[in-house]
Design goal:
heterodimer, A: 764 residues, alpha+beta, Aldehyde Oxidoreductase, domain 4, Aldehyde Oxidoreductase, domain 3, 7-stranded mixed beta sheet, 17 helices, 28% helix, B: alpha+beta, DNA polymerase, domain 1
Chain lengths: 764, 168
């Protein structure tokens, strides 16, 4: 049945992000800002050993601390002491042994934070140290200490296609290099926090800073041995997450403590604890061999990826799969061999972080593209153009791309800046070299080769107002606003006229995690589905009330009008009143699960994602070859987002990604056991930022809500490789390890300087 | 708790234009007193060691990280927190500029950012883009990439509203 005409300009407009005014006024409550009568504080006693058995645990001395309420261990956990998003390999409180520094040993509850810390300091733990392993390749040897009973292998993923060995043998040029990346801290500005209590219905309520309320609900219920509907998770305003707040951080602890002491309990991580106890970006070691022919076309790649997931899996398997699938970048490669092997070590847990391994892979495949271009005498832009995926291309997993393949358009979009920058790049200062780099990326929207549905409801209330219900956690990226814009467009409303109820498990159904750049595409489609159903009902009712043909109706600003007689119409309120008299439901559910297939375990072939985002960045840098300092001057960033539902939000994501990508490229490295806080971990500041020119490319995705795909993670992915290529251009020497800190850049530069010196000496 | 054996310090200061009298422990930070004793939670704690700027307040018009200031040092000062910046429903020009530029994402750094920008404009009503970036370099933000924030303040600094921003 056809829908009515909609007059709305909700899509493609930069409406104000929901909740911004309150945030600007300081009125928004984050979890640490919540207060409730009688609230007490929980803190966690954490291991200072990387791998050890707990031989003795003696909390006796803590009990005399004024304000003491309890010390709890794994024995006090009423349910199943296992959790984790993919592999249930984490213990809320460890039972027998600790597997990394920071592992939780006991939970201490007291009247105040100070009392809890004092009590914690009096607990005596005797450990028996075990041999530990900190290198993933070493962890996979027979001699390595076993971290988990099942062994140290987390998982292995392969992608195989064609005859890569044969193709490499016959390629005109072959380039092989090894790339490494480091542990990276998410460094969201709001340290993890939560508050839990048991309400008047005997339901455990947890207010938390989270990206994943419906997953939290399941794991907290399991830990406490409660049915899911006895646990309610309310996502408070969340001060960034970037993947780390997909894990259960404080939720289990405050839930357990509230359950055991029967008092409201709060927990706020210090920055040091957030550094110590939450997930990091996986460091990858990537051996990358690629071949190409004189025509500039890639013939084959052969890639081995070693990943360190630390002591626990978290999202490690998702990173393994995604790294393998994205190894070829946004290019047609007929012959592919990729093997990704991820291992447990006694390092801190690595989990999801903005891009799930793709930023690391892009560093490798984009460095390779420039190396091949140099071998072939092609410009870096040209080699990318010749190999870019297009409609009709097959990806490394054998998926045919049929629409919205905007990689070529992003290359075109940056081409003029690329050419200009290459001309302008001459430096006038001694020892300061200018360089220009380009890098592209592909990113599959949503989870890899598995179901990851979203649901939503849209309701017309008796007062004539529409309310959107979505479980999608908005962690600052703006999904709540975008989802409202989608509902508004489908119903001919102004976005301001729509109320929203977001991320409260008592009032919303699961939208899946806020991860994998999936909320606009997947939850947006669920919202569109729900709103379309409501639209249909409104239309049917209006047609009856107006005695008109459905085709002659138009939804506009909360009323349905006759197109043939625009003065005649009926309001949503009148429709709602009539429907409630006749018992017609006005709350409709929407559902969307992207069209994917599981990947073949032997070959990695299949349809892992329903749609892909594409991007290209051009970075212009200045490198001081005496100090190794890299200054990024400008980043031109073109992103194919399908359709920009809120262009200002999309630009915000691009700026954000460039900042995080700059950090990944130049300064961010978490050293396990050394890095403690923001004093020794540096992220980009306002003074580090280059000029950023965001370019939005819209190649609409037919299955996307009004054509939209996603941009959250794509924004970050090309920046570091573009900077790496620019540094290589400046120095005529390449850095193969991220971050490209002063030491690494200097070292790369020295080899060039000594070569030059030799040359100039020869001249005399 | 356990205050009986600690000599409290009596302090009085102006907070958002209103007089405040308090007894504080000598080692309490200004941030802890503002958040926990006075209950103004708009000022955020992001690191506790003066690295992130989320707790920035204005003390005698100057941007200060409240986590590094001892509460007794507030005595006799004129203090402004984010809660004192807007006038009723009317946002301060700095807040309006950030709103118009989409310069707020998660919002956790926002109060501190507003205070630093306000402090800058009070000292220098027409800063250059570079001066703005330098003045805000002590306020970390992980969401926005700073561009829209600096754009907002730059536009405000170049407009007649900059003087209004100073007056308030």
């Amino acid at each position: 049945m056809s829908l009515g005409v909609v007059r709305s300009q909700a899509i493609g407009t930069s409406i104000e992000r929901r909740g911004t005014r309150a945030r600007l006024r300081g009125d928004t409550h984050f979890a640490a800002d919540l207060n409730i009568a009688g609230v007490v504080t929980a803190v966690v006693l954490r291991s200072d050993r990387p791998h050890a058995l707990i031989r003795e645990f003696d909390p006796a001395a803590a009990k005399s601390t004024p304000g003491y309420l309890g010390v709890f261990t794994w024995r006090d956990i009423p349910g199943r002491n296992r959790f984790g998003i993919i592999n249930k390999d984490q213990e809320l409180l460890v039972e027998r042994k600790v597997r990394c520094v920071g592992d939780p040993v006991a939970l201490v509850v007291a009247e105040t934070e100070e009392a809890a810390q004092r009590a914690l300091s009096k607990i005596r733990v005797v450990y028996e140290d075990l041999p530990a392993v900190f290198d993933p390749e070493e962890a996979l040897t027979d001699a390595a200490p076993r971290i988990h009973e099942k062994g140290n292998l987390l998982g292995r993923r392969v992608v195989r296609r064609g005859s890569p060995e044969e193709a490499l043998k016959h390629s005109d040029v072959v380039v092989e290099r090894t790339y490494t990346t480091s542990f990276v801290e998410h460094a969201y500005l709001e340290p993890d926090a939560g508050l839990a209590y048991i309400d008047h219905n005997d339901i455990l309520v947890v207010h938390a800073s989270t990206q994943n309320p419906h997953y939290d609900q399941k794991d907290v219920a399991d830990l406490l041995g409660l049915p899911e509907d006895r646990v309610r998770i309310i996502q408070e305003a969340t001060g960034g997450g970037f993947g780390s707040k997909l894990d259960l951080n404080v939720q289990g602890f405050v839930g357990l403590a509230a359950f055991l002491v029967q008092r409201p309990v709060r927990m706020v991580y210090s920055r040091e604890e957030a550094f110590l106890a939450t997930a990091k970006r996986h460091p990858l070691k990537i051996r990358y061999k690629s071949g190409a022919n004189r025509d500039g076309r890639l013939t084959a790649v052969d890639v081995t990826i070693i990943g360190d997931t630390g002591a626990y899996a978290s999202y490690g398997l998702a990173v393994t799969s995604r790294a393998a699938v994205h190894a070829t970048g946004p290019y047609e490669v007929p012959n592919v061999s990729v093997e990704a092997i991820f291992a447990y070590t006694n390092n801190p847990m690595a989990g999801a972080m903005r891009g799930f391994g793709v930023p690391q892979m892009a560093f490798a495949h984009e460095s390779q593209m420039d190396l091949l271009a140099a071998e072939l005498g092609l410009s870096p832009l040209e080699i990318r153009r010749r190999n870019a995926l297009r409609i009709g291309s097959q990806t490394a997993t054998g998926q045919y791309l049929t629409a919205s393949v905007g990689i070529g358009a992003t290359l075109d979009a940056v081409a003029s800046r690329w050419e200009e920058a290459r001309v302008e790049k001459q430096s006038t200062r001694a020892f300061v070299r200018r360089g220009v780099g380009i890098a592209s990326m592909i990113y599959g929207i949503g989870n890899t080769g598995m179901q990851n549905p979203s649901t939503a409801q849209v309701e017309l209330g008796r007062d004539g107002f529409v309310t959107l219900y979505s479980g999608a956690a908005d962690i600052g990226q703006g999904s709540s606003t975008v989802l409202v814009q989608i509902a508004a467009e489908a119903l001919g409303l102004k976005p301001d006229a729509i109320r929203s109820v977001i991320a409260d498990t008592a009032h919303t159904t699961s939208a899946g995690a806020t991860s994998a750049s999936r909320q606009t595409y997947i939850s947006g489609n669920a919202v569109l589905d729900a709103a379309t159903k409501l639209h249909n009902v409104i239309l049917t009712e209006a047609a009856m009330m107006l005695k008109a043909d459905r085709g002659d109706l138009e939804l506009r600003d909360g009323s349905v009008f006759l197109r043939s007689d625009p003065g005649k119409g009926v309001s949503f309120k009148d429709i709602a009143e009539r429907a409630s008299r006749t018992g017609l439901p006005l709350k409709w559910q929407g559902y969307f699960d992207p069209d994917t297939t599981p990947l073949d375990p032997e070959t990695g072939q299949g349809r892992p994602y329903a749609t892909y985002a594409f991007a290209t960045h051009v970075a212009e840098v200045e490198v001081d070859s005496l100090s190794g300092e890299v200054r990024v001057l400008k980043v031109t960033a073109a992103h194919d987002v399908g359709r920009a539902i809120n262009p200002l939000n999309v630009q915000g994501q691009i700026y954000s990604g460039v900042a995080m990508g700059l950090g990944l490229a130049l300064m961010e490295e978490f050293h396990p056991g050394v890095t403690e806080s923001l004093k020794d971990y540096h992220i980009a500041t306002a003074a580090d930022m280059p000029a950023v020119i965001p370019i939005i490319v819209e190649d609409p995705e037919p299955t996307g809500p009004f054509g939209a795909k996603g941009v959250g993670e794509p924004a970050l992915i090309p920046t570091a490789p573009a900077i790496a290529n620019a540094v290589a251009d400046a120095l005529s020497a390449r850095v193969y390890n991220l971050p490209m800190n002063l030491e690494r850049v200097l070292k790369a530069g020295i080899s060039v300087r000594s070569a030059e010196k030799e040359k100039s000496c020869q001249g005399y | 708790m356990q205050n009986s054996d600690i000599d409290l310090v009596n302090i009085q200061f102006q907070l958002n234009g209103k007089p405040i009298r308090l007894s504080v422990r000598p080692f309490d930070s200004a941030l802890a007193v503002i958040r926990d004793e006075i209950g103004l939670t708009g000022t955020k704690e992001g690191c506790g060691i003066g690295e992130c700027g989320a707790c920035t307040i204005l003390v005698d018009g100057k941007a200060i990280t409240a986590c590094l200031m001892l509460a007794p040092q507030l005595d006799g000062r004129e203090v402004q927190t984010i809660e004192g910046v807007a006038e009723g429903d009317t946002l301060h020009p700095v807040q309006q500029a950030l709103l118009a530029h989409g310069a707020v994402q998660c919002g956790f750094c926002t109060p501190g950012m507003v205070m630093s920008a306000k402090g800058l404009l009070e000292a220098n009503s027409h800063p250059t883009r570079e001066e703005i970036a330098d003045a805000l370099a002590g306020n970390l933000c992980r969401c926005t990439g700073y561009v829209q924030i600096v754009d907002a303040i730059e536009e405000l600094a170049g407009s007649p509203r900059a003087n209004e921003a100073v007056k308030r």
